[in-house]
Amino acid sequence: MAIKSSAKMTIDPMSVKYANEMSQWTVFWGLMFVVCRFALFKKYSADFSNRVVSIVHAVVAIYYSYVTFENGWDGMFDNIGGANTEAQTLCMAISLSYFTYDLIYCALGGDFMSVVHHMFTMGGLASGVLNGRSGAELVACLFLMEVSNPSLHLRTVFIEMGLKTSMLASINSLVFALMFLVCRLVIGPPLVWKTLASPDNDYIVKAGGFGILAVSVFWGMSIIRIIVKEVKKLMGGGKAKQA
């Protein structure tokens, strides 16, 4: 009797067709940063421009991942460990190209914590693209991670623009915190459990899903503090400062 091993990885021929596209997208992210840094936002820092690129990627990733859910939100939990659709592979390839760009940026900037984080993320996405499997859960995980990222990066953008204490910044922080908690700690755990329980997933996919959940739980308390702080600011305003 043959025993199927979840650790065995085979190369999906379909992944080869995305290699050139991934290279083009990686160049695209790099060129976008150059345009932002030296033309559009040259009075701000390099981090500002990189976060603009990250916001654009988050929007692109949210769109491409959502359209892969054939049954809407419920489709996020369909076909765990199964074969990829072309839409899922394309979505993972685009995001893999972005993380390649951002890993290079973070490495050059000495942000080694982000480098390690990106390596785990890229490992899972690369596994999905190369072996043509687990696209459903990887794309769903990508969606849950990216949906709060525009607000996350906007927090730093607002600080550089001098809007840290504005109502817009407070609302943005509140939106970020709520979306993070709902996506990472409410919807995320069932998805991670299904990923871990699937016998068809590679170990790197399972490890990546568990690692992201662990990091999300770690940051959960800090996110709750953000909610409390911003709600008090929006409800109290100037009166809270005078007290």
TrEMBL record:
Keywords: Membrane, Transmembrane, Transmembrane helix. Coiled coil: none annotated. GO terms for cellular component: membrane. The chain crosses the membrane at residues 22-40, 52-69, 166-187, 207-228. It comes from the Eukaryota. The keyword Membrane applies. It holds the Pfam family TRAM_LAG1_CLN8. PANTHER family: TLC DOMAIN-CONTAINING PROTEIN 5, TRANSMEMBRANE PROTEIN 136. This is TLC domain-containing protein. It comes from Micromonas commoda (strain RCC299 / NOUM17 / CCMP2709) (Picoplanktonic green alga). The lineage of its organism: Eukaryota, Viridiplantae, Chlorophyta, Mamiellophyceae, Mamiellales.
